[in-house]
What we know:
Oligomer: single chain
Radius of gyration: 17 Å
Amino acid sequence: MALVALGLRVVIAGLFLVAAGSKLLSGQAHTEAWLHGYRFLPQRVVPAGARLLPEVEALVGAILLWGAFGTAGTVIAMAVLAGLTSAAGLALARGLQSDCGCFGRWSAPLSWRVVARNLALIVALAATIPMIPSTPGVAAWPAAPQTGVVLATSFALTFACWLAQARGRTPQLGDRSTTASR
């Protein structure tokens, strides 16, 4: 059972890390646009939210990947996912149309399917909590090394995305000017 919990944790960590990376590669303007589309945050807070969200997702992904902070790490991941799911559900309940924003410019349209998927991920994380003590990870380490591993992983993802943008190697899926020039 511990291997199932480990598998769930790693898969959900991967989703958080891919979500963070895709938002970083898509750029802050894209993240701001979908945050505006949700009409969840006050307008003046949206630029800061767009800057912080990918970093928070990268940290949560690293926490789950490494199994850091035991139950607290899993609860943090559940809380972040619950906040994002609540914002999506509220936008849908208001009849707003936007992309889900989950994976930057590669996101699907916002739908109740996205909300259901996120709720299933929250339940899956909750199911792993009783197995955390027997699941491989760094939770047994002192807090400082756990924090160091999480921050290093998050920084590495952020730096890799920044470097890809600086070198002009960001994929431009769906950009007609890119496909038309081939």
